[in-house]
Design a protein that fits this description.
Strand content: 25-35%
Oligomer: single chain
CATH superfamily: HUPs
Distance between the termini: 58 Å
Radius of gyration: 21 Å
CATH topology: Rossmann fold
Number of helices: 6
Number of strands: 11
């Protein structure tokens, strides 16, 4: 296997409390710490381990978004990726358009394996991976908690509701990863300095011939309602009465 492509999405850091903008137009990001989507970071870690075992030659990281996403791509390069691609777009890009963008890069760079996080923590869609596999016409394995490669085959252990499922797929393929696959490495300062010299390519979205066409329009955002204080009941009858009072039964 020659090349692995890993998607890195820029999201609000998982340790930050998300706040809605005062006008309800979206989530507040000004002055907020941004990071690589945690699932994507695990996907990159797995790609790097595959390369370190001699099962791949090149790891490429890609992101779609504003120029600010270069920060997350540089972090990916510091972790060990060989080069990075930023597809620049000032507007939010829907999962189907992201899948089409990835397909363009796959065709251009002859990618053998795509590793993605199973979902992004900002919208939780879990759509890009399956959509990409469908557009590409290649096998997919989602929610991977273990990946074993053997030539042009991959055995993937995936987490399902009933437990674990093991499937065999042929490469090229798309694999989305779960949290239990690995633990991402810590980025050291010398690696951050070296990453500044690694190639980071910026491509305007228009140059790829992909026109975003979102099927869903986000009209407004609002914070969840404050959780009501719980009440104590003495017995089952009291519980049923309390539920009836709230119109739940």
């Amino acid at each position: 296997m020659e090349k692995i492509l890993v998607g890195l999405k820029r999201v609000v850091d998982y340790n930050v409390r998300v706040r809605v903008k005062s006008d309800g137009s979206g989530v507040e990001t000004d002055g907020v710490k941004m990071s690589i989507n945690p699932f994507d970071e695990i996907a990159l870690e797995e790609a790097l381990r595959i390369k370190e075992r001699g099962e791949a030659a090149v790891v490429i990281v890609i992101s779609v978004g504003r120029a600010d996403a270069q920060q997350q791509l540089r972090t990916g390069l510091a972790m060990g990726a060989d080069r990075a691609v930023l597809v620049e777009s000032e507007e939010s890009v829907d999962p189907l358009s992201v899948a089409r963008i990835f397909k363009s890069i796959i065709d251009r760079d002859s990618i053998d394996l795509v590793l993605l996080g199973k979902q992004a923590i900002d919208n939780d869609n879990s759509q890009t991976g399956p959509m990409l596999a469908a557009i590409w016409g290649k096998p997919q394995a989602t929610f991977a908690s273990r990946i074993d490669l053997d030539g042009d085959k991959a055995k993937v252990t995936r987490e399902v509701d009933a437990g674990l499922e093991v499937i065999d797929i042929s490469l090229p393929a798309v694999i989305t990863v779960d949290l239990r696959l690995n633990e991402a490495r810590y980025v050291k300062l010398p690696d951050i300095m070296k990453a500044k010299k690694k190639p980071l390519e910026s491509i305007p979205l228009a140059d790829l011939g992909v026109a975003p066409c979102p099927k869903i329009k986000e009209l407004s955002f609002e914070a969840p309602a404050e959780r009501e204080r719980g009440i104590m009941v003495d017995d089952v009858a009291g519980l049923v009465t309390a539920l009836k009072d709230k119109g739940l039964v």
